[in-house]
Write the C-alpha cells for this entry.
Amino acid sequence: MSDRLATIVVWIALALIAVGLEAVALATRRLAGFGAALSRLARPPAGRLVVALGWMWLGWHVFAR
C-alpha cells in the first residue's frame, strides 16, 4: 500500500466516523451534533481563533491541492 493510498484510506475512515457520530447525535439527541459543538466552541474569542486556525489547516491540507 502506497503512502498516498494509506492517506486516502485514513481520510475516508475519519469521514465515515464523523458521519456515523452525526447520525447517532441526530437519532438519539444524547450527543451534540457537529454544528452545535462547533458553535459552542466558537463562543469565546479563543475558541473562534481555534476554529479559524483549524479551518485554515483543513483548507491548506485538503483543498489546496
Remarks:
- The first helix runs from residue 3 to 28.
